[in-house]
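Exercise 7b. Backbone tokens:
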């Protein structure tokens, strides 16, 4: 009986939500929300909202305007993202949402240098400070645009997809594995994502 009642409640909620997003005013409401993000210079959020507005109805005037806005904002948001993570970073800890542990190596530090068009991974001897290049990856964004966040994730040469961003609470750089790019699109990791966290070093 309890399961039956829960099913009815969930169905009712889904029906209300479905009616809301199908309502003529909902697309306008979301468009205005996109403009609000844009006024705050939050370009990636604005681009994602405008993309969603277009998906609600790509054929009316509002949907077409939203598509134009989303397409024009996405490159700006990508540039801002790259600029925000450029620098020299030292690996601090690794883990996932299950927990983290400090990176421990008595001989080498793991460094990541992010340039305008490359990720450069190094080992640096703690005593001699000698750098050894371990891996170099060109900055390449994921092709998938079905979800707004995918437009701001990076694909490495092994087809692994990584999200990079700055934690506003501590200014650490986060590197999170979110899936793999495939011929049919992408896979998605929704739990237990491998993550690396870095602290910024002075130039």
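Sequence design result:
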């Amino acid at each position: 009986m309890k399961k039956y009642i829960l099913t009815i409640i969930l169905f009712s909620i889904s029906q209300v939500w479905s009616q809301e997003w199908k309502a003529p005013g909902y697309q306008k409401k979301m468009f205005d929300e996109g403009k609000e993000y844009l006024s705050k210079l939050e370009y990636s959020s604005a681009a994602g909202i405008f993309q969603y507005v277009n998906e609600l109805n790509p054929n009316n005037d509002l949907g077409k305007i939203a598509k134009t806005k989303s397409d024009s904002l996405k490159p700006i948001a990508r540039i801002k993202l790259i600029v925000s993570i450029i620098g020299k970073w030292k690996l601090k800890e690794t883990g996932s949402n299950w927990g983290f542990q400090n990176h421990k190596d008595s001989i080498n530090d793991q460094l990541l240098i992010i340039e305008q068009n490359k990720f450069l991974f190094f080992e640096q001897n703690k005593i001699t400070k000698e750098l050894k290049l371990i891996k170099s990856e060109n900055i390449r964004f994921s092709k998938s645009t079905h979800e707004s966040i995918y437009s701001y994730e990076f694909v490495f040469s092994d087809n692994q997809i990584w999200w990079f961003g700055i934690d506003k609470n501590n200014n650490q750089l986060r590197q999170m594995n979110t899936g793999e790019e495939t011929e049919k699109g992408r896979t998605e990791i929704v739990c237990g994502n491998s993550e690396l966290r870095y602290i910024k070093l002075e130039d």
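Instructor comment: The first strand starts at residue 87 and ends at 96. The chain has four helices and ten strands.
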